[in-house]
Design a protein that fits this description.
heterodimer; A: 261 residues; alpha/beta; Rossmann fold; 6-stranded mixed sheet; 4-stranded antiparallel sheet; B: 433 residues; mainly alpha; MetI-like fold; 2 domains; 3-stranded antiparallel sheet; flat
Chain lengths: 261, 433
């Protein structure tokens, strides 16, 4: 913890060491070593099937839901191993929020969508505090002005981009430390994408963000650090600017210049 | 080069054109076959429904005849005590007979009396008894009353059997037919709505038989079935679909559930007989046992429908809830189950509709008994609608034919409305993600 105070910008939030993931007989990740720093946006890029989503889903143990998935190696958040037996997965997911590729609001009201996380974790003492959490979260997600008059309408009635920002509001309502985003803009149009990207940049102040993206422009726009995955291995990790302007590995260079992918 | 391409193109066009006719003919043939199949099945359905309605609609009517009754104090209460017990046990049938004789035949020999009595239902005497006990002041007065006709007269008036002595189904003799003609001439017969049919229990006399006992029995049975099979079925479906590990045992259970759905229902009846009656000594002929047996029959249907409904909930909802830190039980209780509920309810209603129509398993546990009383609780002996139909269909009296068809119509009405509810539920709660 003291480390965090001394080195707020470059302190490691999530550290993967020799991380292997198998789905049944198929190995998806091969000895991944990766540090994710607190208070930064880290982008994971790479061609389809390279394991970047798999890695993302290790961080909040969503792979537990996949039948036959095995994780070995170590993955720590603030120094404690999240695959340790003593770690409760429900508690972990309260600390590590997730935004999915396709907007997936609950078929409930906008209010209930955002209030759901705080409710199940008992984060609000009374209704007023819950209202406050919902409003703040919607505001942080830049959605409040658009929906403040129709909080009781269903979340699925919103447009795609609004739905995705609702999902982000839902994730930050729990005040997680880390937010994982799995291609959050792939189902959105360019204007909605721009709004979400703007939002990601603002959220960086309070949260550590890991984002998987297929769009290299997006990675360049929103992230401070970028990791390039290929065939289940991390080929290169570095500052985003350096990865895009001066990649050290020929594979990285090939990918970002569009020779394969 | 260009020529070659052109030749190929021409050849392709020619080949296609040559086959085109055959292809369209095949299509027309196929359509005609499908249309024929549909027409044939619609035809069968129409014949079935038509024959039921044709035979049964008169079952909703009852024949009454107007008779002037003298409430003779000498017959009802010779001593003038107005004691309720005396009023209750008086010979009201004699009053009916006297009224009939006064109207139709002055002769008073036994054969005439018997012929006269055969025209009126024994219920007419009960009607008089009820009137007198309610208002003893009637004694000594005269009144023209509409009395319920006997089933034999009823059949002739409704035209269900020919007005011909000795004709199939006709139980009236020449003299009785003459009296009937006389009464009709004087407009002293009428057909009214058959309330008895909807308020009475079973009876040996067709004109007094009703389906209310069977409806109440069916209601109790289905209530038990629902109470047992819905929670069990939903819990099983949720466990198997959401929590159970996939291994040899759960596969075995799954295969067995699918097989149970196809087991003939009479087998479940035998099981009920062996377990509920012989081991647990539950009451025979009772809706409680019937309901339990029907619950066993419904259970596989509900489980299979429930699992299908759970499978149809998109995984993205589960992931969203899990991503927020919901525990597996919270994921199911807060999100998956509410979304799957309309599908589960639809499956349950369809299962209930099947249970409502089941007959064979209930015969095994003694629900085929002749029961006149309306059951007051699920522990009382009772009939159910399909068994009532079965019982009436086997009765020799001609008048039970229309009762059978009328009861079938009532049962079909219940079935159709249950299926409608299922369809409406499905339409109303159908969700798009």
């Amino acid at each position: 913890m003291t480390l965090n105070v001394v080195l707020p910008q470059s302190s490691t939030k999530v550290r993967a060491t020799a991380l292997d993931v198998h789905y049944g007989d198929k190995q998806a990740l091969f000895g991944v070593d990766l540090d994710i720093r607190a208070g930064e946006v880290t982008a994971l890029i790479g061609p389809s099937g390279c394991g970047k989503s798999t890695f993302l889903r290790c961080i909040n143990r969503m792979n537990d839901l996949v039948e036959g998935a095995r994780v070995s190696g170590s993955l720590t958040i603030d120094g404690s191993d999240i695959y340790d037996r003593t770690i409760d997965v429900v508690q972990l997911r309260a600390r590590v929020g997730m935004v999915f590729q396709k907007p997936n609001p609950f078929p409930k009201s906008i209010y209930d969508n955002v209030a759901y996380g705080p409710r199940i974790h008992g984060l609000a003492q009374d209704q007023a505090e819950l209202d406050d959490i919902v409003m703040t979260s919607l505001e942080k997600a830049g959605l409040l002005n658009e929906v403040k008059d129709r909080l009781l309408e269903t979340g699925t009635s919103l447009s795609g981009g609004q739905q995705q920002r609702l999902c982000i509001a839902r994730a930050i309502a729990v005040e997680p430390e880390v937010i994982l985003m799995d291609e959050p803009c792939s189902a959105l149009d360019p204007i909605a994408t721009a709004k979400v990207e703007e939002l990601i940049d603002e959220l960086r102040e309070n949260f550590t963000i890991v984002i998987v993206t297929h769009s290299m422009q997006q990675a360049a726009r929103v992230s401070q650090r970028t990791a390039f995955f290929h065939l289940g291995k991390v080929i290169e990790i570095g500052d985003t600017e350096q990865i895009f302007t001066n990649p050290q590995q020929p594979l990285t260079q090939g990918y970002i210049t569009g020779r394969f992918g | 080069m260009t020529e070659m391409i052109q030749t190929t193109a021409t050849r392709t066009a020619e080949t296609v054109a040559a086959r085109l006719n055959r292809r369209y003919t095949a299509e027309r043939r196929f359509r005609a076959l499908g249309l024929g199949a549909i027409l044939l099945s619609v035809g069968f359905l129409a014949v079935l429904l038509g024959s039921i309605v044709d035979k049964g609609w008169t079952g909703f009517l009852q024949t009454q005849i107007a008779v002037e009754i003298a409430f003779d104090p000498q017959v009802i209460d010779p001593e003038g005590t107005r004691d309720p017990a005396t009023l209750d046990t008086a010979d009201y049938a004699a009053l009916v007979r006297a009224g009939m004789a006064a109207r139709l035949s002055p002769e008073a020999d036994r054969a005439t009396r018997r012929d006269l009595s055969a025209l009126v239902s024994t219920m007419a005497a009960d009607q008089l008894r009820a009137m007198v006990t309610a208002d003893p002041a009637l004694i000594g007065s005269r009144a023209t009353l509409w009395l319920l006709a006997s089933d034999k007269l009823d059949m002739v008036v409704k035209g269900q059997v020919p007005r011909q002595v000795g004709a199939a189904g006709n139980a009236l003799n020449d003299r009785q037919l003459g009296w009937l003609a006389d009464l009709e001439q004087a407009h002293q017969t009428r057909k009214t709505f058959n309330t008895t049919f909807f308020t009475a229990g079973d009876s040996r006399a067709p004109e007094q038989a009703g389906i209310w006992g069977a409806v109440v029995g069916s209601f109790f049975s289905l209530a038990i079935t629902l109470l047992v099979s819905f929670p069990l079925g939903v819990a099983t479906a949720v466990y198997l679909e959401e929590f159970a590990p996939i291994n040899r045992w759960t596969n075995l259970i799954e295969v067995n559930i699918n097989n149970l759905a196809a087991v003939p229902s009479v087998v479940f009846g035998l099981l009920g007989l062996a377990v509920f009656l012989n081991v647990f000594h539950m009451p025979r002929s009772a809706p409680l046992v019937g309901g339990l047996v029907l619950a066993l029959i419904c259970l596989p249907t509900i489980i299979i429908a429930g699992r299908a409904a759970l499978k149809a909930v998109p995984p993205s909802i589960r992931q969203a809830a899990a991503g927020l830190g919901a525990s597996p039980l919270q994921i199911v209780a807060h999100h998956v189950l509410p979304l799957a509920m309309p599908g589960m309810l639809t499956g349950t209603i369809l299962g209930m509709a099947r249970a409502l129509g089941e007959t064979a398993p209930l015969l095994m546990i003694g629900m085929v008994a002749f029961i006149v009383d309306i059951p007051k609780s699920p522990l009382d002996p009772s009939a159910v609608l399909p068994v009532q139909i079965y019982l009436w269909a086997g009765s020799p009296e001609r008048a039970f034919v229309e009762k059978t068809s009328a009861a079938i119509m009532v049962l079909l009405l219940f079935l159709v409305s249950m299926n409608m509810v299922a369809i409406v539920l499905r339409k109303k709660f159908e969700r798009r993600w």
